[in-house]
Amino acid sequence: MNPLIAKSRPASSALALAKVSGNPSWLGLVGAAVCVIWLLVALFGPWLAPHPVGEVISDNIFEGFSLAHPFGTDYLGRDMLSRVLVGARFTVGLSLVAALLASFFGTGCALLSVVSPKWLDEIISRIMDAFISIPSKMLALIMVSAFGSSVTLLICTAVISYIPGSFRVARSMAVNIEALEYVQVARTRGEGKLYVACREILPNMLNPVLTDLGLRFGYIVLLLSGMSFLGLGVQPPDADLGSLVRENIGGLNQGAMAIIIPALAIGTLTIGVNLLIDYLSSRRGRRAGGH
Amino acid sequence: MTQLIRVEDLRVVAGDPGSEVEIVKGVSFALEKGEVLALIGESGSGKTTIALALLGYARRGCRLSGGVVQVGEHDMLALDETQLQGLRGNRVSYVAQSAAAAFNPAKKLLDQVVEGPLIHGLGTRAELEAKAIGLFRDLALPNPERIGRRYPHQVSGGQLQRVMAAMALISDPLLVVLDEPTTALDVTTQIDVLRAFKRVVRERGATAVYVSHDLAVVAQMADQIVVLNGGQILERSATAPLLKAPAHEYTRSLLAAARPDTRIRPPCGVAEEAPLLTITGLTAGYGNKNLHGMPAIRVLEDIDLTVRRGQAIGVIGESGSGKSTLARVVAGLLTPALGGLTFDGQPLGGSLSERTPEQFRRIQMVFQNADTALNPMHSVATILSRPLKMYFGLKGAALQVRIGELLDLVRLPRDMADRRPNELSGGQKQRVNLARALAAKPDLILCDEVTSALDTVVGAAILELLRDLRQQLGVSYLFISHDISTVRALCDDIVVMYSGHKVHAGRRESFAEAPYHPYTDLLIHSVPELRQGWLETCGATHGELPPIGERANLPELCTFLNRCPMRIDGLCNRTAPNRRTLDNGSEILCHRDAADLLATQRGVTPTSFGAYA
Amino acid sequence: MNSHTLWLICRRLGAGVVTLLIVSMVVFAITAVLPGDAAQQSLGQFATPEQVAALRLKLGLDQPGVLRYLHWLMNLLTGDMGQSVSNAMPVGELMAGRVPNTLMLAAATALVSVPLALILGIGSAMGRGGRIDSCLSFITLAMVAVPEFLVATLAVLIFAVNLGWLSALSYATDITSPLQFLRTYALPVMTLCCVIVAQMARMTRAAVIDQLDSPYVEMARLKGVSPIRIVLRHALPNAIGPIANAIALSLSYLLGGVVIVETIFNYPGIASLMVDAVTNRDMALVQACTMLFCAAYLALVLLADLCAILSNPRLRNQ
């Protein structure tokens, strides 16, 4: 996970990071393809799974590649392909829901604080500042220790951790846009705050907000799989990709596929998202710069 | 005389390989030693690109694709990067447009001035520093021995520009390239910088290329003028004949647009007696408020102003004078600390929430920067329909008809309605901007520097439109500008602001002839005129200021005190000035009376407005 | 240095203290107030109401939350962090044994990663758009997104299992020779460095390029200053603020990464202590560890801000 972008103070630097990279566009397409594949797996994976996810189908544990079990078997002899297909739904689904909520609330608060009186803006910003000083993993750990782990709690934790980052990025953009003259014109025309926020400011920051949503999705994937890896995330019998790595850690010294495949799965997902975002924002940067 | 600089068929392209666009299309000119050549043109004419090509440099995304740039014995386009490094800042040097941005904020000025020549091995540090101090002195910088030890942010813009000239001249270059060096400055500062430049350039016999969009400035500096448009040379001639008898149509339009007040006049008889907007005792500013509710930074002090129905009032002043803040207060964007506003007999709330919808409708604002004044995500039709729906509840066909009418009113074709702002040119954007304000059928339009960001020709057309609209619709303007000639082209009354105070207010005609407030005098005489030799003969800001004793600790003291050539020791620095009314009806904030002012200012009446004096 | 700068620094320090206070409230609220009755929980379902009441009185749970918070805060400030239930030891003692290990790990990581990241970031900024830059840019982009347990598992596979060079498990005790030190620390440090170096290099590159695009760099170029001198003497002094910020944020990321790495390598540091505490729901220990990590995070960010303030000549001498 990547707090430096999530939590960097000058929010624009997060976007600048992506904007200035010189990667060719085919990498962006690769990223897009990877993202689409993972999305499809999350949607249809459980139906594609050749075996029931919990069923022990082989006597051999930590089996390698075979036609019957392309991803091998796990520490109990269950089919890894099925487990990955099902686990991906947890990883992608939970992260997507959490990222959407975090972005929604973060952007909402940002818009609210920009059109609000100064004191309210100050209070919202202070609270966000305090929350941003709790590293997301720490927050997740204390939440789990206090309330025990559940899917709802994990989503709540991820949302709470990433609202402040999303708020910061969105607020710094909204403040810049709010100072622009077309917003001032709208205000002196007597427009309401809601109109100014939703019709004048929001459309002009939608692109960067979506980019930020993508970045945040990546961090949440890493956070949730990290928690599962520690045994504090998704609880058995359910398993996300992080849990799969954890439960098969015993196969590490044999170099078992059961541990490498889910770890690689998470890697491809987050790298794919990053490549896509990098491509999208560099294209936007070029368009803005070329104009 | 030999040709020192020879540019032949210079071509520059921009864009990604494969989709390159030629932005400089075969430009040729030559320059002899000791001459100053001006490149003049509007934005996008390629003038800066050509100037940079003289140093063998192209900005990111551009490429010098062909031609010859001969400087002395070197062909700048044939050299490699290392050889160019050896020449830049040594044989060819550059003065950038914005000195504030072109100096490294983390290094002291003197270190930056001597850095180039030190690298090129032109002397020891001590020698170079002594030479730099000599140049500072020649360029009339205050405290030349010590100014180099400061950081850029500690020095004013006009001074920085002169330090930058010293940096360019310290290596005794063959060629100095000056890129719009005074554009970012106030006129009153510009004149000092121009004088300093001209003197050093003449004294040292430097050869220079001077890039500018302002013909009047160029007329003071250049021997030769090259007129550029769209990357091509339209006309090339010595300065005097070009000013007298321009050969090309485009040059004539540039000349005509340079001083709009010689061509455009405000309409007569539109203004009525009834006051529309009255401002009384207005004080406003930014920052945290203290115990008495006064802001930390006070930008406006005790302003009184009345705009009558149908009247156009021009507000002029240099940057930081508070003129834009005045517009923001009237628009309701900034709540005043003291004083009140009355609009058409009704009190006008200080903040937006205290205003009625009808007041919102009747006061409209048009901003300087057309690029940021239109929401890029909305089409022209959407932009115009919002006030129509909001104020008049128009829909459907009636809405479309009205949008069409508005576009006609600002002389835009009706099919522009479907475009987005980024598909429009600067002038078109400003027209849409204006149409949006007109959609509300306002009584008062606040115009904040509406022509400043535009090219002169386009700006003059917008001024003409504003004048006609006023005639047609009887709308009042509060017209804010830093340029006295645009104000004179449009406004009946003029208000001069200086650091938050209204120092001078009067009829437009009264600004044609002395007496004025000393600051007005400075302002009027600092505007360059379109004739050669003006710089040497004009009367403004010269010589030493009369010495003055310690100033009393009174906030009400005259704010122009430090720059006033007519200040009186013991009076101006001890007591606050009074408002006095002159014979011509104008009101000034000064200790001097009309006779004093007249005695000093007589005989320097500029010629350009003798026409309607 | 003048009064204005001093005021800025004081204000920043003040803001840091206030933030830390708010953080402590949040931590206390989550761990001690929101979850409900700790006495009931620790005694289980079959305890009699009398037993629960007695324990509640003993733990001070009958007092309102605010008072308990103030009590807890005072204890924290005086160094009394309570008793660890699962280890039956004072929390302070427990942590004191672990903190040096984690510091050692963090220091080793910082020592390797910061210079490496700066070189990579500045280097790729200088060769912007070139082949090396594109390459580095892709690698760092990928590394930033990789979970550290993937790096750790792959590293163990390669270096410990296949090559057999290093041990997969780290023990920070009994280090007698540099070689042993290397064998112990190589894998955890390498894992931590991977992600941090990538992040820091990207941010450094962005900060330097930001400066390289500014008009004063163009001016320096037009003065005939060489590219290397432009970066070292012109761009870098102005990029100190953003770079310090990048370093601080990346190092504070260490705090999160260290949780995973210590667990994987069984490293006896403060983070693995905390993970155990979370698993055992040992609240006093969780609270103390969290406060330590948050304080460290805030201190790093604060330090970066001070660097930025002090390196800015506008603020240094007005």
Notes on the structure:
Chain C: It is found in: Cell membrane. Chain C: It is a multi-pass membrane protein. Chain C: Its main location: membrane. Chain C: One of its GO terms (cellular component) is plasma membrane. The complex is a heterotrimer of chains A (291), B (613) and C (318). Chain A is 74% helix and 0% strand. Chain A is mainly α and 291 residues long. Chain A has a single domain (25-57, 81-285), classed as MetI-like fold (Orthogonal Bundle). In chain A, helix 4 (80-115) packs antiparallel against helix 5, helix 4 (80-115) packs antiparallel against helix 9 (193-229) and helix 6 (136-147) packs antiparallel against helix 7 (151-178). The longest helix of chain A is centred in the C-terminal third of the chain and has 37 residues, at 193-229. The two termini of chain A are 34 Å apart. Chain B is 34% helix and 24% strand. An 8-stranded mixed sheet of chain B has the order 16-17-18-13-19-20-22-21, sandwiched between helices. In chain B, strands 6-7-8-3-9-10 form a 6-stranded mixed sheet, with helices on both faces. A 4-stranded antiparallel sheet of chain B has the order 2-1-4-5, with helices on one face. In chain B, strand 9 and strand 10 (232-238) form a beta hairpin. Chain B has 22 helices and 22 strands. With 613 residues, chain B is an alpha/beta fold. Chain B is globular. Residues 604-613 of chain B have low confidence and may be disordered. Chain C is mainly α. Chain C folds into 2 domains: 3-90, no CATH class; 93-316, MetI-like (MetI-like fold, Orthogonal Bundle), CATH 1.10.3720. Chain C has helices at residues 3-33, 38-43, 49-59, 65-77, 91-126, 131-144, 148-162, 178-212, 215-222, 227-264, 270-280, 283-311, 313-316, and strands at 83-84, 89-90. Chain C is globular. The N and C termini of chain C lie close together (9 Å). The mean pLDDT of chain C is 82. Chains in contact: A-B, A-C, B-C. The interface between A and C is large, with 63 and 72 residues.
